[in-house]
Amino acid sequence: MITAKHEKWLSEIQKADARLRAFPDGNGRPNIHKPRAAAMRWAIALSQKQLDKLSDGDFSNLQRELACFRRFELKEPVLPGFVEPAPWPSREDINNTQQWIRGILDNVSSRSDNTVVYKIPEREWHLVWIISDRRWGQFYTEKEIEGTSRVHELFDLVREHVDKILRCKAADCQKIFLRDRSNQEFCSTRCQWRTGQRTYKDIPPERYGKRGRRMTSTPTRLTPTPKEKNSGQPKKSKERAHGTKRRTR
Length: 249
Ligand SMILES: [Zn+2]
Description:
This protein is mainly alpha-helical. The protein has helices at residues 4-21, 35-48, 56-72, 91-110, 152-160, 189-199, 205-208, 226-229; strands spanning 123-130, 135-142, 165-167, 176-178. Bound molecules: zinc ion.
């Protein structure tokens, strides 16, 4: 029997599915036409989260997103049938999953010569000769293994995107990201622009202003200081190239 509990579960799963599909790229733009890439970015973001600092709401969203991805992998969510909806992933499960994603992303993005090996521990294949039908039946079962987290759906995601998982080339960022274009080296236009400013040889360093200064840990200012604005020097029209306009956060 489908109960109110089932309906509520489905509605939360559907919302989680929508969040996964709309997960933005490094420039804050979602691309609903590539839901699996969006989910890959979601998984990368999960690897970078500080789980103990999440608000209750964010943590609860994360539980639903992980449950949704494991169960439906971006196929249309459906009611869980007659069984009780499974409980949302526990904190321990999410911690384990995060550790696993961190490990595999570090490994893959380093592009070193070690082989990445992954074996699905939960899956058990059955090949059955069905006498009455005179044919082979094939199926597998999956069971939870105590103390481990189910990550094989995430592994599939990594496998599909393995050539696109890189570390941002900006020395002060170096975050792992999923590239969109084959020549993309930075996680965002923000990082690309900042690095470009520093290495752009034709502009003498004194003309970089604050924006081009080598950074230590804090981001450079995104807008000119009042002093820069009123310095009276005529501005060259090329000074702000395309893509340098900043969003304020
Ligand atoms: Zn970056």
